[in-house]
Specification:
2-enoyl-CoA Hydratase, Chain A, domain 1, 4-stranded mixed sheet, 10 strands, alpha/beta, about 50% helix, about 15% strand, about 260 residues, 11 helices, binds coenzyme A
Amino acid sequence: MKYNNILLEKNNALAKIIINRPKKLNALNKQTITELSHAFKVLEEDSVIKVIILTGSGEKAFVAGADISEFAHFSVNEGGSLARKGQEMLFDFVENLSTPVIAAINGFALGGGLELAMSCHFRIASNNAKMGLPEVSLGVIPGYGGTQRLPQLVGKGKAMELIMTAAMISADEAKNCGLVNHTTTLEELLPLAEKLASKIMRNSSVAISGAIKAVNANFKDGINGFDTEISEFGACFGTADFKEGTTAFLEKRKPSFSGN
Ligand code: COA
């Protein structure tokens, strides 16, 4: 697929997806969602890629929301279908990837932009970032998982306040409430993301994908997370990485994981 609205960069085991519509503050139109979905799928299938960093182009925005011009005239059915398709194609898909995804929030992350960052496995932000779910100020509610993932990250009361007031919070406030893990300067944002990625890459990718599955199971209806943890834990004992990790420990050397 030829990408018009995103850039995809690969450097050995690290991939970067850069949302690239800076004139529209990287707003998520249909085409951008399709391209993102495709890129994540391609990277998930690429066994060389161990970590994905998602960021926005320019110095102003990660993503300033879903593209308002595309849905302003939608009917009830079209609105429902927009949310359902988007969640399936991109937001739920990213959350459930077995390859770790770090959101590097480099500016505005509003509405669908914050929802996309919240679908990633964790988030870091630059000091200029502003985050919020301003949907009720447009007469709509978050539709790409925001009402579910924001309370998971910041707690129900804080999420209710942020959603009801449509407030934009700073990177420091986002860190204080657990929405992002680290803040830094804009210049240091990608280097920090890369440093975290390289720490992740030292570990067993097959164990990491099991851990992602087990953590996510805690938030899925009808699934017992403890059971998922037990079965993912057990599965590790059949992997080459487990043999290598434990043998290396006992031989007092650094492990060399194959990811199998
Ligand atoms: N959808 C569509 N276009 C958007 C957009 C969105 N979510 N966010 C920004 N843009 C466009 C603007 O329409 C403008 O386009 P134009 O130059 O063709 O007029 C361009 O991006 C630049 O935005 P602008 O509003 O001029 O920048 P600003 O610095 O004055 O304000 C924001 C920045 C983020 C405060 C403002 O753009 C904004 O409020 N955006 C909408 C945020 C939102 O409600 N998102 C949730 C959507 S559900």
